[in-house]
């Protein structure tokens, strides 16, 4: 009996560990569900036209309405202040959250940026929407996305894309300046996000 109990406990632990290792999933979007791209100049599409910013390209790839709510210069703190109004206006089912780059450019404390990201995610979820977190690289040579993106995504069970902007901004063919993509770069971002949304089950 004792051996059977131990075996049962071991199986339960194995199942729980497997569940924890599984990538976070998203509910499937209906055809009329709105996707909100919320962020700073990388979301706005600085370095390209409105039609070639990643939200516009993603809309064409997915067939969904994708609202571009990117504001150049936005930090996680200013984004947190304007987020409730944007959520109330568009009532999205899914939010693509891409903030933190301006915090790093202004050398704001990483702990404050991480805390604000958590508050942003909480605000979005409280509205009934799901979240995909998009990480951006540190503004230095060979700088990848800071660890706080992965911590927030892991702790809050979010799909995370924290590599694509790093890859784009290392390729001179895909960027308009050191911290912004060009039209070709934003297309790469949109294609990567489209693939992530399919993998996560939203599309």
Automatic annotation (TrEMBL):
Pfam families reported for this sequence: Lipase_GDSL_2
Domain SGNH hydrolase-type esterase: 37-188
Signal peptide bounds: 1-18
Keyword Signal: yes
CDD domains according to UniProt: Lysophospholipase_L1_like (cd01822)
Keywords from the UniProt entry: Signal
Segments passing through the bilayer: none
Name the UniProt record assigns to this protein: Arylesterase
Organism: Thiobacillus sedimenti
């Amino acid at each position: 009996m004792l051996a059977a109990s131990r075996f049962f406990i071991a199986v339960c632990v194995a199942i729980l560990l497997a569940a924890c290792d599984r990538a976070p999933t998203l509910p499937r979007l209906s055809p009329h569900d709105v996707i909100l791209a919320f962020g700073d100049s990388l979301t706005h599409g600085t370095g390209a036209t409105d039609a070639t910013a990643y939200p516009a390209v993603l809309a064409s790839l997915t067939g969904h309405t994708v609202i571009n709510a990117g504001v150049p210069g936005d930090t996680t703190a200013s984004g947190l202040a304007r987020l409730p109004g944007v959520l109330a206006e568009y009532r999205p089912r899914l939010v693509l959250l891409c903030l933190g780059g301006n915090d790093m450019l202004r050398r704001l404390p990483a702990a404050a940026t991480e805390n604000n990201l958590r508050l942003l995610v909480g605000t979005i979820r409280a509205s009934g929407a799901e979240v995909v977190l998009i990480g951006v690289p540190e503004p230095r040579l060979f700088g990848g996305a800071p660890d706080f993106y992965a911590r927030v995504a892991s702790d809050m069970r979010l799909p995370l894309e924290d590599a694509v902007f790093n890859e784009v901004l290392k390729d001179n063919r895909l960027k308009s300046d050191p911290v912004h993509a060009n039209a070709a770069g934003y297309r790469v971002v949109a294609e990567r996000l489209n693939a992530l949304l399919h993998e996560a089950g939203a599309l």
